[in-house]
Design a protein that fits this description.
This is Helix-turn-helix transcriptional regulator. The protein has 123 residues and is mainly α. The chain has helices at residues 18-26, 34-38, 46-58, 80-83, 86-122; strands at residues 62-67, 73-78. The protein is elongated.
Length: 123
């Protein structure tokens, strides 16, 4: 699993990449411009959105089409490869919905234990 050359290091959508899955979902109904993506993706900085779009394009998940117009227009669209991730993303959402209460309870228990340990160590 951790061997050099393991394909896991080349996986295009990593669990911790918050914006990649959201960008793909935003493109599900058709191409969008950069400014159109920023609306539903409140909170993403232009820099992070640019990096995410470039990574998704690099990995073949989306296409970037620049139109020779004034002013210039660029649209991003899903590829078949990008669309193929939706079944897996749906399964992850179902798992999260079913297990979110347990995850939140575990986080709270962890924080309570950490606070108790700090109190004990301070006293």
């Amino acid at each position: 699993m951790f061997a050099e050359g393991c394909p896991s290091s080349a996986v295009p959508i990593r669990i911790g990449e918050k914006w990649a899955g959201m960008v793909l979902v935003c493109l599900a109904d058709g191409p969008r411009r950069f400014s159109e993506l920023k609306v539903p993706l409140r909170g993403v900085t232009p820099k992070v959105l640019t990096e995410t779009l470039r990574a998704l394009e690099r990995d073949g998940m989306i296409t970037r089409t620049a139109y020779d117009e004034m002013p210039p227009r660029v649209e991003y669209a899903l590829t078949d490869l990008g669309r193929s991730l939706f079944a897996m993303m749906h399964a992850c959402r179902e798992w999260a919905e079913a297990n979110l209460p347990d995850v939140l309870a575990a986080r709270e228990a962890y924080l309570d234990a950490q606070a108790e340990a700090r109190t004990r160590d301070a006293g």
